[in-house]
Design a protein that fits this description.
homodimer; 4-stranded mixed sheet; two-stranded antiparallel ribbon; 3 helices; 8 strands; globular; phosphoribosyl-AMP cyclohydrolase activity (chains A, B)
C-alpha cells in the first residue's frame, strides 16, 4: 500500500470561509496530530465507536476503503478488524464544518460486532442518576454478539 | 446551578474489568482534561456534531439535561444554544467500553439546526476522490435550515 510517506496529502490552513463552505479537504489534526473519527453503521445508523486517526491513518482509510486508526494506548497504527475480523468497510466519509472531526459510515465484516467486549456497539451502557443526582451506568444492550473470552482463550 | 466546584464527581482509575463491565461512571479525560462527545438526534439518529467536554461540562450536562461543552478554540464553557437558541435537550447519555467517549442523544430546540453554518448537522459534506485518488469534498446536504448571515447581520 502506498501511504504517501513524506507527502502531506491534505490541505491545511484554509481561511474560515473556504474551510466551511468549500470543497477542499483540510482536516484539522490536534497538537498530537490526531482527529476524532465517529463510526456509525451505514444501514442501521447506530453509533458503533469513536477512534482517533492521524494523517496517515486517514489517508489509508480513504485509499483502501477499510478503516485505519492510530491507537493512543498502544501508539501504533491499527487496522480495525485485522485480528478480530471485524473489518469496517467504509461506505461514506464525511467531515464537519470546521473539519476537526471525521464521520465514517461503515458496514462491519466478520461476526458484525464492533466492540472488543463483544457487543455490536461500544456504547452499550447509558448514564442514569439516583435520587441524589449521583450518576451510574445501566446496560442499554444486554445481548453480546460473542464472548471474547471464548474466542481468545487457549485451552 | 451547582457545579460541584472542588469536588471530583466521577470515579477514576478503575481496573479494566470494572471499567468495561461495571456500573461505575468513570470517564477518562485526556491530558487536557477533555473527552469527545458525539451528538446524535434522538428521533432521527442523525449525527449532528462532535464536541469536547471537561469534567464540569459533563457534570453540568448530567445535572441540567442541556448539553454543555468546553470550547477548545475560545477556552471557555459553552452551553450549546445559549445564543442561537439551538439548545440540546439531552434524552440519553451513553459512554463506551473504555469510557473515553460520551454519546449524547438529544432533541434540538430553536430552529432545529445544529451547525452555525446553517445546516441541521455539522457533517454536511462527504469525501470523494477523483480519478487520481485525490480527495475533495462534495455537499451531502444542500438545504440549510437558516442563513446565519441573515440572522446575525446588523443592518
Amino acid at each position: 500500500m502506498t501511504t504517501g510517506q513524506g507527502m502531506t496529502p491534505f490541505a491545511s490552513a484554509l481561511d474560515k470561509k473556504t474551510m466551511e463552505h468549500g470543497t477542499v479537504l483540510a482536516p484539522k489534526f490536534d497538537e498530537h496530530g490526531l482527529i476524532p473519527a465517529v463510526v456509525t453503521h451505514f444501514d442501521s445508523g447506530e453509533l458503533l465507536m469513536v477512534g482517533f486517526m492521524n494523517e496517515t491513518a486517514l489517508q489509508r482509510t480513504i485509499e483502501t476503503g477499510h478503516a485505519w486508526y492510530w491507537s493512543r494506548s498502544r501508539q501504533e497504527y491499527w487496522k480495525k478488524g485485522a485480528t478480530s475480523g471485524q473489518v469496517q468497510e467504509v461506505v461514506e466519509i464525511r467531515t464537519d464544518c470546521d473539519q476537526d472531526a471525521i464521520w465514517l459510515r461503515v458496514r462491519v465484516a466478520g461476526n458484525g460486532a464492533t466492540c472488543h467486549v463483544g457487543y455490536r456497539s461500544c456504547f452499550y451502557r447509558r448514564v442514569e442518576t439516583d435520587q441524589n443526582g449521583q450518576p451510574h451506568l445501566v446496560f442499554a444492550e444486554t445481548e453480546r454478539v460473542y464472548d471474547p473470552a471464548e474466542v481468545y482463550s487457549s485451552k
